[in-house]
Amino acid sequence: MRRLSPRKRAQRIRWVQYAVLVAAVVILIAVADLRQIQKVFFRGDLIVDTLTQGLGRALFNTVIYALGAFVLGLVLGTILALMRLSSVGPYRWIATVYIEFFRGLPTIIVLLAFGLLPLAFPGLEIPFGIYGTVWSALGIVAAAYMAETIRAGIQAVPKGQVEAARSLGMPAGAATRKIVLPQAFRIVTPPLTNELILVVKDSSLAYIIGLSATSFDLTKYGRDLANTNANLTPLVIAGLCYLIITLPLTFVVRRMEAKSARAR
């Protein structure tokens, strides 16, 4: 019997996999109660109510929460990355402890802690109210992850460029600002975009600190409507809104990674 070439064997394996997938989908459709699925997850009147009762505001709040936290995390993460690479021991120790501590804590605990700060410190007011609280909590956690990403980008910049700048009389701080950081951020832009996607999803935990109707994020908005109507349609709509935010970012990351791979 004639043996198949590796290419033919791979093609047959792929066709078998496709056939199994199609069979699984057909069986799933055959056994599913489509009417019940539509009733529980895609009820027409609740779709209209979800879209018209405040979804736009919830979507806006989610974007604002994520962007504010990302900006704070980026600034703080850059400082931590520079501290982690510093020749001054205490700076490295502080940055290391911070990064390991907040990378190890669940984001929901940090949010809850910030929400309860006014109880621990009577009279304390975080600037910008609930927005400032969410930005601070999410940004502090995001900074711990971004710091490691930025540190890797800084270390990827050839040291010869810094040495050349120093040999021309440029101070170390100026060389870092004008030469190292611009190149480092160009290198780590794709992973930082991934961090933004994670911050967007982490913003769904903001409900834990108690949000008013005007500060609802998508998850809180969908959850309240789902509980009121005993139906999951509002949560499905909220989930689709998250996809509307994150999928374009994912596409951008892939394009940047592909462009970077071609450049190499």
UniProtKB/TrEMBL annotation:
- SUPFAM superfamilies in alphabetical order: MetI-like (SSF161098)
Q: Is Membrane given among the entry's keywords?
A: yes
Protein name per its UniProtKB record: ABC transmembrane type-1 domain-containing protein
* Compartments in which it is found: Cell membrane
Query: Which keywords appear in this protein's UniProt record, sorted alphabetically?
Result: Cell membrane, Membrane, Transmembrane, Transmembrane helix, Transport
Species of provenance: Terrabacter terrae
PANTHER family, A to Z: GLUTAMATE_ASPARTATE IMPORT PERMEASE PROTEIN GLTK, MEMBRANE COMPONENT OF AMINO ACID ABC TRANSPORTER
Q: Provide the family line.
A: Belongs to the binding-protein-dependent transport system permease family.
